[in-house]
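Notes from the pairing session

We agreed to fold both candidates in a single pass and log them together. This is the raw record for the first candidate, unedited. Please don't reformat it; downstream parsing expects exactly this layout.

Candidate A
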Amino acid sequence: MRLIVCISLVVLASVVISEPLLINYQGRLTDASGNAVPDANYMLAFGLFRDSTGGTALWTEVHSAVHTSGGMFTVRLGSVNPYNLDLFDSGALFLQVQIGTEAPVIPRTRLTTAPVSAVARRLYGDIQTGDGFLNVAKGGTKMIELTSGTGAASRASMVMFNPQPEPPGSDPLIQMSADVGGTAGLWLYNPMLTVPFDEKVFEVTNNPTGGASMVMFNPQPEPPGSDPLIQMKTGADGSAGLRLFNPMTATPYDQKVFELVNNSSGGAAMHFLSNGTEFMGVDPSPWHPGGDLTMRDAAGSQTIILSSAGSLSIGTSSTANILTVRQYSSTDPIADAWTTYSSRRWKTNIETINDPLSKVVALRGVTFDWKETGKHDFGLIAEEVAEVVPEVVAYDDNGIDAKSVDYARLTALLIEAVKEQQKTIADMKSEIDKLKAHPVGQPAATAQQ
């Protein structure tokens, strides 16, 4: 049985990024009595594991002819099978060594300096450090700048610069900063500017007293770059909102065209606006917890409501019915056609209307003036119709007050009434024809003898 004593384990860091990272491993090979093995070439196998015992090898490499001198040998791990630097990103690493076909040497050796050096090697470029700052440059041009500030007078920031020659490399592209007042921000600058200036195109801020905000700015010269186009904001009172500002204005102003708001006391809503006036939106509903889709006129009055319960209201705020059209409208609704479900497939207990003519006779057609508009009209009185044919009358939610009449359904009643009346007319005509054939007082004709 042979033993290996690890003499040293050193990372050989290359200055050329394309060269693999090597770990210089030096050891002494002895027999069970501690004597150096004869000078010769030996096969050594190496593996990296996350655990000190067991587990699956993350990387393996075999050196088929490692020469020993007085038991001493040196190998460069990674020279046969380069390993991925991701091995050093997380967790401990243990090196396992095996001599020829013998069992692996125990215990495994834990790597310490190798992971640190490997991770440090990932940061490539000219690194400039000082009191409170760290810069990464390429070819003398600063690419990344980290500053800690003084803590009391200046803010900390991390800035990524534009590597292109135009605009100059000193113009920032991305900046993250924390101010002494407790605010924090993320700025994305426009990389396409032809002349250097400090107009922000994106900003994320957080203030302990004023809430947080994310703003996208217009990089065009008109309107000025300082005018926001898109803003997401939370207020100190718990409110939150998303605002889209009009990018087509010739002069800067703060009129929203779209907003998402959420207030701790008022619920969430989505609004479309013009010149600051809401014309359409989805608002918390006083009738249904799911919210309604609404449209408003210039005065802010609701004109169309599509409720979460599936009802549609036009010109009215009432959503009690599946479809409600505003009463006293100045214009009449018009359509090509309107049909009603009427197939026998959906009906049962079908019977002909009984005594339809007497029902029609009991109805009263009236003329009247509407109270709201003063418009003269004619029709029926719902309460009177309910006493004769209640099937065509609709009621308020209280089930007591009649509110409307389904005039179309009265057609079936009128059809049967006309048929009953026509039968009466036919019977009377038959009697009249008989009287005409046999006048009263005139003997009936007798057969000739």
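Candidate B (folded immediately after A)
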Amino acid sequence: MEQPTIGDIEDVLQKLGSGMEGLNELYKQAIRRINDHPEVTKRLAKRILIWITRAQRPLSIVEIRHALAFRENMLKFDLKYMPDMEFLTSVCAGLVTIDESSEIIRLVHYTTQEFLQQTHEEWFPQGELYMTKVCVTYLSFDTFENGPCQTGEELKQRLESNPLYHYAAHNWGHHARVAAVIDQEVIDLLECKAKTEAASQILMAVRPLESSELLSNFIERIPGELTRLHLAAYFGVEKAVDHFLRKGDDPDLKDTYGRTPLSWAAENGHVAVVALLLKTGQVEAGSEDKWNQTPLLYASANNYEDVVELLLENGVNVDSKNIDMDADAKIIGTYSGRTSLLYASANGNVVIARLLLEKGASIDIRDMDGKTALAFAIEGGHEKTVELLLDNGADVHIQDKNGRTPLSRAASNGHEALVRLLFMRGAFIQPVDGYLTNLTWAVRHGNKLLVQLLLDKGHLLDERDSYNQTPLVHAINKNQVALVELLLDRGADPNLEGSNERTPLSWAIKLGDVDIVQLLLHKGAKISYKDTGVSSLLLKAAEEGYMDIIPHILDKDVQNETTDAAMFELLFLAVEMGHTAIVQLLLDRGADMSYSGIDVSLFPSNAFTERSIDIVQQILDNEVQIGASVAVIPTLLLLAVEMGHVAIVELLLDRGAEIGLRNRQQLWVTLLAGAIEVATEIHHTVIVQLLIEHAHYMYI
């Protein structure tokens, strides 16, 4: 086999069923072929593979070509060292491919990635050190010796002209930390203030930035005065931190955001660097930045348990709070008025929460919205954390600024187990909990078991919320048929008015849910209620396009309250929508196409379409049976002429002749004259000709 293709890999996978032994042998053969290449080709292939395998994100073709152009002691980028794109795949024994749509070079199969990740120390034992050298050399080019850019346009140009710059600035420290070898190139870069600040400027970017305007705004927000020690601590490069501490760098120096090397190391979970900085005895373990964020807050927010434990051992304030954010703070991602316990509870980190509680963290301390640790834990559905907080005396009745209790948060997120736990710990149902009732919160989430639980605990069925709505109306608005049925079965009032004096039935009709309409009618919903009578409900359903609801309402109209005008309008709407069954139903109920109280010109121009001919035939057949065609045909004919529907005009003219309108000569002559006038005005020559021919046929 010359080289493994995707087909070869899939064939092996199919034969294997499970396990990697056969594939591993396939990949080992590919590595052996690479090792058989000449030295230059072999080195290039392995560098391509290490970049694809060990890079912190997928690299574009241009990025990897820039990375491969690396040479020892380069002072500036040289295009002459960039390999051709086609050569990138040919030297790798079939292990890589180019995704043309994304312009990313990648491995041919996910199993290839797994194999190379597991074995990279065998085929490229110093891969991370090599990647560190490439990134650091790139950041050290002479072009960056002027330091950070001063304008967005300048920064945009820098990124475009140096494609690997963004990756190198964000990831050199990661590769250096993993390599665990302090290289002189790293020290040289960090000792150059201008180049360090230039790299830091890109490092602080939270997302790819394209326009020069966005870049200008970004430049104004990034922290300044990031020293080499800040940068080494940020990435957790322990040997570099130790090197600069030995050289006498201030371990507690703050950047323009008020952040120390300890703050950056704690945020990124570099426990060895945190320990090294604390060991100096020259740092304030609980130092606050411009938002009162402490190293403990950063570590807690990012789930770094070892760092939290280490900081607590150094006596930091366990209840320190950050403050309200401004635009700059969004770069850091802080939240208003949170403590470390609030962070840990929101994350569901039981280990950190327990460490903090053991050090005396205030259990019911609130953030700026009045939310406690219990509220955050419940909101995230973190059952173990909730149990820990309750075991330590968390208040189950405490309300936030919106009046919401832990119970309402559990209900609104559908956490049945947490609701049960809160009831076991003494929680009780409050009338309105944060502008909605507890039952409504559960209904809106759609959790039937939770709704049943709340009802079993005594929650009132028809209790209104701050919007004057009942749980039943919320269930209808969420199209929760099962919950509507449950609430009605448990006794919810189907006629209770809510906001705007609307009944549950009117909401169901507006939403067009036939099943819910049937349920409500079956449970006694009144179809004639104040100003919402039968006609009003029927028209509402038709106007919303929910014709299937109409039969159910008519079936309940035992007192025949539907007006002739409403029936006539419904008939037109049914015709317009092509609902033959509804048309027949309305005709059977006495809908009259010749109803004199309606101006037919007010109906929409698409009341009749060419597909309506079957419905028109249906109406005519019905009118023959009740002997009213003499009145109906003129109405329909004028509409059909006005709308320009030739086939319907022909049908009506033929039917008019059949049923004897010719015997009412004056009426017919007047009708035809009017139709001809209308057709002429709209320049419909075909219909004009039809009408003239028909008149000629009948009277000559």
